[in-house]
Write a structure and sequence with these properties.
heterodimer; A: 113 residues; mainly beta; 6-stranded mixed sheet; 5-stranded antiparallel sheet; B: 115 residues; 7-stranded mixed sheet; 4-stranded antiparallel sheet; 0% helix
């Protein structure tokens, strides 16, 4: 089983729509959680951290459910510029004492004009 | 702030040759740098974690003698792919972190093609 699982999509949604992505992680020792976006052939960029209390940044809302080991991202009023691959990422400490980010394979989103 | 550069941005080399990729933190000192690899339509996979002045810690399945990592200063880490083969063709991305509780900042990546 993959450590981080995401629906690969693609999600094709009209501009202005609301879209939700989900992600599950298998390692209960995971400590922190993030959503990144990655544009084609580019590096990933941090979109937002995810907390159990839920957090919002403009049109983006992220939520973490530790009991279910489930992470979500909601995008409201989607824009053409939101088209990208969204990566669910978890962070945990390894046996060597390092911190390790584990990336999901990403969910591809295309906003249609 | 928090800019990480990589050089080269893309490279084509012949099978059997070695390729060196540089990762630099331009406006901060990075106590830790990370090297990732991403094959097409797959997730980023951590290859190794490098702390300045010490040997890199490699992930399971990553050959340390094939992927040589040097982190000699707080602003520079290098990854050398030795005796490259076509299956090493991939997108190599580094990241750097100023300290333990800081975000990782990613470089723009290096696209390696081995012919």
């Amino acid at each position: 089983r993959k450590e981080v699982e995401q629906d690969p999509g693609p999600f094709n949604v009209p501009e202005g729509a609301t879209v939700a992505f989900n992600c599950t992680y298998s390692n209960s020792a995971s400590q922190s959680f993030f959503w990144y976006r990655q544009d084609c052939r580019k590096e990933p960029k941090l979109l937002m951290s995810v907390y159990s209390s839920g957090n919002e940044d403009g049109r983006f809302t992220a939520q973490l459910n530790r009991a279910s080991q489930y992470i979500s991202l909601l995008i409201r009023d989607s824009k053409l510029s939101d088209s990208a691959t969204y990566l669910c990422v978890v962070n945990r400490r390894t046996n060597f004492g390092n911190e390790k980010l584990t990336f999901g394979t990403g969910t591809r989103l295309t906003i249609i004009p | 702030g928090a800019v990480v550069s990589q050089h080269p941005s893309w490279v084509i080399c012949k099978s059997g040759t070695s390729v060196k990729i540089e990762c630099r933190s331009l406006d901060f000192q990075a106590t830790t740098m990370f090297w990732y690899r991403q094959f097409p339509k797959q997730s980023l996979m951590l290859m190794a974690t490098s702390n300045e002045g010490s040997k890199a810690t490699y992930e399971q399945g990553v050959e340390k003698d094939k992927f040589l990592i040097n982190h000699a200063s707080l602003t520079l880490s290098t990854l050398t792919v030795t005796s490259a083969h076509p299956e090493d063709s991939s997108f190599y991305i580094c990241s750097a972190r100023p300290g333990l509780n800081y975000e990782q900042y990613f470089g723009p990546g290096t696209r390696l093609t081995v012919t």
